[in-house]
Amino acid sequence: MKYLAPAKINLGLYLTDKRPNGYHELASIFLPIGLYDDLDITPCKNTNDLDVITSGPFAFNVEKTKNTVYKAYVAIKEHCKLDYGFKVEIKKNIPFQAGLGGGSSDAASFILACNELLSLKLDQKEMEQIGLGVGADVPFFLKKKPCYVEGIGEILSPFDVFKDYWVVVAKPLAGLDTGKVYSNITLNLTLKSLNAKRKEHLRSLTFQGLKDAGELVGLSNDLEGPSVRMVPQILEVKHFLDKASPLVCMMSGS
Question: Is the pLDDT of residue 110 over 90?
């Protein structure tokens, strides 16, 4: 069976707190966009393992146990006591280390595929619990809708968008490791206070379904500062895009 795994962008991202375990809490709007990885998923009764084959413009080599689809397979296998293997072919059209959620989306598509192909009868809550164990963004992709997001990415409030937007996505050749970006953030009381107000603005945008385009002007991403310090080419890309006078130009990523 063939599945499409969409990329996502962040409309605004504001850090609101840091948990004792080191994870940052955030507020953001996650939007799925029309850029997809293509997955071809085939159950295999004669094996009890997962075979992953990647191709496409953004295919890259990664240790099997670190692949998000493999992690999703292990999680479902343990949860459902599966005695099945799979062959998964992924055409990577979503750039990696780009803040677009390609790996998380692939994992979510695999969870949805397992539920459908093997008639596992997992409900939405069960799938999201499995997905959260794989990655913080996986539950969002299981919703298959735009969401206002809080917590570490697991508190999701789906909403409908009442206006169509064109989105241009650009990425420098260099990528960023999410963990390293977060380790370079200083979340002080001033920023937390400011972001409490920004958080309410984001929430209000979702209530109106993003239909007032003017309200998007001024949105920003708290991860952009440390990301630019690590990969200065991000700023060059932004300056290039700004020449086209877009409604808003910001870095994606969460």
Answer: yes
